[in-house]
Amino acid sequence: MFPQLVQVCQVMVIISFSSSITALASMLPPGEVAALRQIGKTLNEDGRVSFNLGDRCESGNVTIRRYPQITEMNGTIGCSCSIADDKFCHITSFELKDSDLSGRLPPDLANLTYVRKIDFTRNNLYGTIPVEWASMKNLHFISLTANRLSGYIPGYLGNFTSLTYLSLESNQFSGVVPPELGKLSILQTLILSSNKLVGTLPEALAQIKNLTDFRVSDNNLNGTVPEFIGNWTQLQKLDLCATGLQGPVPHAIFLLEKLKNLKITDTPGPEFPLLNVPEKMDYLVLRNINLNGTIPEEAWSVETTLDLTFNKLVGELPSNTINRQFTFLSGNMLNGTVPESFIQSNQYL
Ligand SMILES: *[C@@H]1O[C@H](CO)[C@@H](O)[C@H](O)[C@H]1NC(C)=O
Ligand SMILES: *[C@@H]1O[C@H](CO)[C@@H](O)[C@H](O)[C@H]1NC(C)=O
Ligand SMILES: *[C@@H]1O[C@H](CO)[C@@H](O)[C@H](O)[C@H]1NC(C)=O
Ligand SMILES: *[C@@H]1O[C@H](CO)[C@@H](O)[C@H](O)[C@H]1NC(C)=O
Ligand SMILES: *[C@@H]1O[C@H](CO)[C@@H](O)[C@H](O)[C@H]1NC(C)=O
Ligand SMILES: *[C@@H]1O[C@H](CO)[C@@H](O)[C@H](O)[C@H]1NC(C)=O
Ligand SMILES: *[C@@H]1O[C@H](CO)[C@@H](O)[C@H](O)[C@H]1NC(C)=O
Ligand SMILES: *[C@@H]1O[C@H](CO)[C@@H](O)[C@H](O)[C@H]1NC(C)=O
Ligand SMILES: *[C@@H]1O[C@H](CO)[C@@H](O)[C@H](O)[C@H]1NC(C)=O
Q1: Is residue 40 part of a domain?
Q2: Minimum-distance ligand 2 atom for the alpha carbon of 60
Q3: What does R_g of the chain's alpha carbons equal in angstroms?
Q4: Binding site membership of 185 for ligand 5 (Cβ less than 6 Å)
């Protein structure tokens, strides 16, 4: 498509479809229209949601109505008229969060070859990740958070090398974390919490150098907390609560300078000391992980929540504290008195 035409298309789409030229210019290819219809049916098996999709690129909103009560929900099916060098517009994103969808993940999504973003957060979708999706190598963003999906996490996701965000949180995925995910070299967010994953965290994940957010809480993993997590120098958020993994937690994790939010709980293993933590963290939750020794000074500068409960920590509280929201220290072997500054501050202690 010529640049001038692209311009016309984008402007006119927003205004209306009054002229036949514009209507033509904003057409989706017949294959994408057919796929959209099928996708609507697959996502919405029980028919409680009416899912009307046109054959034009209206850059935006799909109206989703739910019966018997008619509730409009925000769904966005994005499209672009300048993404390909042809006379068509193409579907580029699916964002259908909180939309009461109760069907399966649609295999026909793979027919929409320009889709970059899939977000089906908080629906009731069930079944497995379709094998047809293996061809969707250009995806940048996948969130299937909070559905009822099951089966294995397919290794072919490792071929989606443009992926920066992957969340499969709060589903019923089983099997192991596939080592192929280590090929996702530009991935920034990987969230696998609250599933039924087993096995060890594969060494191959060490290759995802720029991860900023990694969460794998509430699974049935085995093996120890891997050393390579301490090499993820860009990490800002790490959740390892009740993973099934064993301690001791590698010391290098507590040296990650960018870490603002660290939660590790219920990790049995030999006793080990907490020698230091990054300064000015927002959340530091280290509950029931067999810490011994004293609490390092930097821990007292945690800003929002400090939870060091159910360890074997000894020593006294510092004479001054910042006005943090929550401090939890029970289930340790601390001694001495609680300084006035703790009692006078507004924090929940
Ligand atoms: C999607 O593509 C597959 C393979 O090319 C084809 O068999 C299928 O009919 C297409 N789906 C739709 C709804 O057109
Ligand atoms: C999509 O819906 C939102 C909220 O209802 C609205 O503000 C926006 O203008 C709509 N976009 C289009 C392209 O219709
Ligand atoms: C739709 O999105 C807008 C803007 O994000 C929000 O204000 C509105 O509450 C949403 N409506 C529904 C039904 O979720
Ligand atoms: C993933 O990519 C590799 C290398 O390009 C290829 O051999 C393999 O078949 C692909 N896997 C899938 C499931 O597409
Ligand atoms: C990681 O980030 C650094 C700095 O932002 C960048 O130079 C590097 O290319 C990134 N690595 C990968 C594999 O994307
Ligand atoms: C993890 O569990 C699997 C099977 O559940 C077992 O084969 C493997 O040896 C276990 N690995 C470790 C390190 O315990
Ligand atoms: C951590 O990174 C260093 C330096 O790149 C490397 O030598 C070491 O093997 C890595 N450790 C792990 C457990 O991956
Ligand atoms: C913590 O426990 C380890 C392992 O039992 C032990 O070697 C170390 O001396 C203990 N440190 C403190 C300060 O008690
Ligand atoms: C608390 O215990 C430490 C040894 O763990 C001891 O050095 C210190 O004097 C004790 N403080 C008080 C107030 O009992």
Answers
A1: no
A2: 13
A3: 25
A4: yes
